[in-house]
Amino acid sequence: MRTTALLGVAGALFLSLVLYGQEHPGTKVQGKAKVQDVEKAIMDHIEQDEMLKSRFMVYDEKKEIARVLTFERFHTVNQLDDGSFFVCVDFEDQNKDMLDIDFYIDEKAEGLKLSKLVIHKVNGKSRL
């Protein structure tokens, strides 16, 4: 009886995570123009970094290494409750590791600006 109850609770928890759980915060941005604006702000940030350092790099605090990144693709562009944006982007580093990088973008008077960058996953494994 106790085992059956535990299995029922575990199954309900799993089902609720599948149906309602979110890996990424916020809601999907509506409108192609806004998505393109947010993606352009990130590409502009990457290009500025490349102009300064001749490559796009992020420092991995957990591994204590600089990762040289090559853009692969955008896969999530969400808007957060406060009006800012959450964007998940895939990159490959110099060691062929695949990184899932989360960009947080604020909408300022002067345009869309990066407020935070987080290494979310390395080779599919969560870092959070």
What features would you describe in this structure?
It is built from two helices and seven strands, in the order H-E-H-E-E-E-E-E-E. The longest helix has 22 residues, at 32-53. The protein is globular and about 35 Å long. The chain has helices spanning 2-20, 32-53; strands at 27-28, 56-60, 65-79, 85-93, 98-108, 111-122, 125-126. Helices cover 32% and strands 44% of the residues. It has 128 residues and is of the alpha+beta class. The chain has one domain (24-126). Strands 1, 2, 3, 4, 5, 6 and 7 form a seven-stranded antiparallel β-sheet that branches. Strand 3 (65-79) and strand 4 (85-93) form a beta hairpin.
Number of helices: 2
Total strands: the figure is: 7
Overall body shape: globular
Fraction of helical residues:
25-40%
Radius of gyration: 18 Å
The separation of the N and C termini measures 37 Å
Helix/strand-derived category reads alpha+beta
Task: Report mean pLDDT, rounded to a whole number.
Answer: 85
How many domains in all? Answer: 1
Uncertain residue ranges: 3-21
What is the H/E order? HEHEEEEEE
Main sheet characteristics: 7 strands, antiparallel
Strand content: 35-45%
